[in-house]
Amino acid sequence: MKLFKFILVLFVAVSFSSCSEDPKEPTILLSNANIAGVHGINSFNIDTKVTSETDVLGVSVPLEIATSSGYGDTFQIDFELTENGDYTLIGQYRLISNITPAGGSQVSETSILLVDDSGTYEIDTTNNTITFTSSLDALLDFSLDASSRLSGTFNVVTFNETAIVLRQEKEEVLEAMTTQIKTNIRFERN
After folding, report:
1. What is the spatial distance between Cα 86 and Cα 72, in angstroms, rounded to a whole number?
2. Mean pLDDT score of the chain, rounded to an integer?
3. CB atoms within 10 A of CB 8
């Protein structure tokens, strides 16, 4: 009888331990060949914080000027990556932005953004990143909305047969103002 109880307990323990792991979608090797194809955007969000340094009695004090958060929806965008390292991003989407100035009330704004961007990309498998170089960057046109082009280095959070999730955190300094930008984009393979 003790042997039967031991076998029963062992069977139950093995059954629980084999069911404890959730099945995960397999990841694939990040390469130009594997990433090539047409993708649609599933989600997009961007958070921005603008600060300035001010001098108070010889001490540099950061002053928050404004924060904003935005997210996209109603995506009608095709994002094509080629095996030779080129990309095109074309279409439109709606961006909902909430801007909060220091000491002020939040302002919400909705806009339709047209996207017509192309350029090159480079994959770094060591750091699991993709660097996009937009052809619009060469124009040095600062009036172009950064939400309408793809530029800079993004961390690859997820890459599998159906999805690519990219995250970028960058800081831009212009004179005494510092802008911190956090962007998340999820692409689904068409």
Report:
1. 24
2. 82
3. 10
The pLDDT of residue 131 is above 60: yes
Contact between 189 and 39 (Cβ < 8 Å): yes
Secondary structure of residue 168 in the 3-state scheme:
strand
Check whether 23 has a pLDDT greater than 50: no
Buried b (16+ CB within 10 A) or exposed e, 170-188: eeeeeeeebbebebbbbbe
Length of the chain: 190
148 or 175, higher pLDDT: 175
Q: Any idea of the CA torsion for 45, 130, 75, 44, to the nearest 10 degrees? A: -10
pLDDT digits (tens, 9 = 90+) for 55-111: 788 888 888 899 999 999 999 999 999 999 999 999 999 999 999 998 889 999 999
Contacts 24+ apart (CB under 8 A), 124-133: 125/29, 125/30, 125/31, 127/155, 128/30, 128/155, 128/156, 129/153, 129/154, 129/155, 129/156, 130/35, 130/154, 130/156, 130/166, 132/87
Q: What's the rounded Cα separation, in Å, for the pair 51 and 173? A: 10
